[in-house]
Write a structure and sequence with these properties.
Blueprint (H helix, E strand, L loop, with lengths): L4 E6 L3 H13 L3 E7 L7 H11 L3 E3 L12 E4 L6 H10 L3 E5 L6 H14 L3 E4 L6 H12 L5 E9 L17 H16 L4 E7 L2 E3 L2 E4 L1 E7 L5 E7 L6 E8 L2 E6 L4 E6 L6 H27 L7 H14 L8 H15 L7
């Protein structure tokens, strides 16, 4: 049996303590060692809690700390603008790196990170987790099984309510909350539309003088095989919803990512009254049933939104030296290219 991979986290924000650390702790091939966090950023009682619950034994303010000499890899949950410098520093220190999305803010920075990983012979991966959650995994199984027939289109929709818990630093990003949240829907679209390229991109007006988040973003993509896709995102909604509609010749799948639910709507044929009632029953019943199952999983602490699979793929890549499928540095760069195009879109006051 191979030795566990010794891992430290970088950053002490919500995503690190509520997503990264629990998933690392659940992986039997991981020895969770400690956390790199600036002095004063994490209170002593919180450090004691993390030590008691997850076994973290080291805390230090820098990637240069001596205790990291015995660490194999780090998982970074710091703000996006810090990724290039921290990732490259960790790679040059001899550490494999899994970094939170967005991978970087520019293609140039993404390329620098990937080049450094190649030069150092280390694994570099990105947390693109929702593609491995219950909803996306079921949708992919249905598509591959032929149950949906031939893929005809993939359409994403996102609505975000600013009253929910948000990163304190999102307004510092080039397009505010869009830059932080869009990677999820973009990589999901890319995972279903192989070799997708953006055909059209519209970025709306900023929400306010101190918030560069656009009120609306609309994009059209097309796979290498010609299958169309689109993404409509609004940041003025009273509800928060992230969904994909995956359309085939035999049926349609709706994937609801906040509830981690996926359900199928059958072909409605002539759209006559019996057909409409059948599709309505399938939609309502499928969503309610899925919500109940996901709710039970959440209450039991089993709803991880794909983070466990991200960790599994990353650790396997560290063990084998083979880039992890779906979360490689190249996958991170593909999303950054779309974000950069949005950042450079005309008409959005900056």
């Amino acid at each position: 049996m191979s030795k566990p991979i010794r891992v430290a986290t970088v950053g002490a924000g919500w995503v690190s303590t509520n997503r990264h650390i629990p998933s690392l702790h659940r992986n039997i091939d991981v020895d969770l060692v400690g956390m790199v966090v600036p002095d004063g950023e994490l209170p002593s009682d919180r450090r004691a809690d993390l030590t008691a619950k997850y076994g973290l034994s080291h805390f230090g303010p820098s990637l240069d700390d001596a205790w990291l000499d015995d660490v194999d890899a780090v998982v970074m949950g710091t703000p996006p603008e810090t990724h290039p410098e921290l990732v490259c520093a960790a790679l040059k220190r001899g550490l494999h790196v899994l970094v939170e999305k967005p991978f970087a803010l520019t293609v140039a920075d993404a390329d620098r990170m990937i080049e450094t990983a190649n030069e150092e012979g280390k694994i570099l991966a990105v947390v693109h987790n929702l593609q491995f959650g219950l909803a996306a995994s079921k949708a992919r199984r249905l598509l591959r099984s032929g149950a949906l027939g031939e893929l005809r289109g993939v359409y994403g929709v996102q609505s975000s309510n600013h009253q929910r818990r948000l990163p304190t630093w999102y307004k510092e990003l080039p397009l505010g909350l869009f830059t932080d949240e869009a990677p999820h829907l973009v990589y999901l679209l890319q995972s279903f539309l192989e070799d997708a390229e953006v055909e059209m991109l519209h970025v709306g007006r900023p929400l306010s003088a101190d918030d560069r988040t656009p009120d609306l973003v609309s994009m059209v993509l097309r796979s290498g095989g010609g299958v169309p896709g689109s993404l409509q995102m609004t940041f003025v909604g009273a509800v928060s919803e992230w969904m994909l509609v995956i359309m085939g010749t035999k049926g349609t799948v709706v994937a609801d990512f906040f509830r981690d639910v996926c359900f199928t709507i059958p072909d409605d044929k002539g759209h006559l009254t019996p057909d409409v009632l059948r599709t309505q029953a399938a939609a309502v019943g499928g969503h309610l049933g899925g919500t109940f199952r996901a709710g039970v999983a959440r209450l039991r602490g089993h709803l991880d939104y794909g983070n466990d699979e991200v960790v599994r793929r990353f650790i396997s890549a560290v063990q084998t030296g083979v880039a992890p499928e779906g979360i490689s540095g190249a996958n991170g760069r593909d999303v950054v290219a779309v974000l950069e195009a949005a950042h450079q879109a005309p008409g959005h006051a900056r």
